Amino acid sequence: MAAMSSRRLFVALPLPEPIAEAMLDLQEGIPGARWQDADNLHVTLRFVGEIDRHMASDLEAALESVLFAPFQLSISGVGHFESGRGRPNAIWARVAPSGDLDELQMRVEMACRRAGLPPLTRKFIPHITLARLNSGSGPIGDWLRQNGALSLDNWQVDGFSLFESDLTPNGAIYTEIRKFP
Questions:
Q1: Is this structure's pTM higher than 0.70?
Q2: Mean pLDDT of 167-180
């Protein structure tokens, strides 16, 4: 019964359609990669994880208080994350450094803490996950070299969203629960 009352949540910036389309254009050239659907492309501000419905409503209330001025973001380069064993497990597009984004992420983090969530311990690395990799995935070196100079037009961030993540055998399905302008 507990599983029914909990939700797996995260806070993120959805991508405007032209940026999402450009991300989809990169999705080839690595055999066995699980490429993300357009609906699953975003910049995570805070992974929340499994919380009960009461904490979820506390979180929504806390996120309502996050204020920020609209700002511009851009994409600059690509990279990858590795598992503890040094094997690549994801490739991503890098979000260019932005003091405004860092400030928004910190405000979202503080709202999460006010809602009773434990502090996030890992460093914020703004990125858009393009593909998940596993031991059967092909090498990524050529893809990283071909796309290393990736640079896309700026887009305006004028809100963020709370998403729910449903894990399925074919990967996660993300549903936008609420927008915070």
A1: yes
A2: 90
Residue 110 CA to residue 41 CA, distance in Å, equals 24
CB 93 within 8 A of CB 133: no
Both tokens of residue 85? 């064993």
Structure tokens at 77: 């380069």
- 81 neighbors 89 (Cβ within 8 angstroms): yes
Can you give the pLDDT at residue 45? 98
pLDDT digits (tens, 9 = 90+) for 94-111: 999 999 999 999 999 999
Helix 99-114 to helix 53-64 angle (10° resolution) is 140
2 confidence band (pLDDT: 50, 70, 90): very low
Q: Which residues pair with 76 in a beta bridge?
A: 151
Q: Can you list the pairs that 79-87 forms with residues at least 24 positions away whose Cβ atoms lie under 8 Å?
A: 79/127, 79/144, 80/133, 80/140, 80/144, 87/133, 87/135
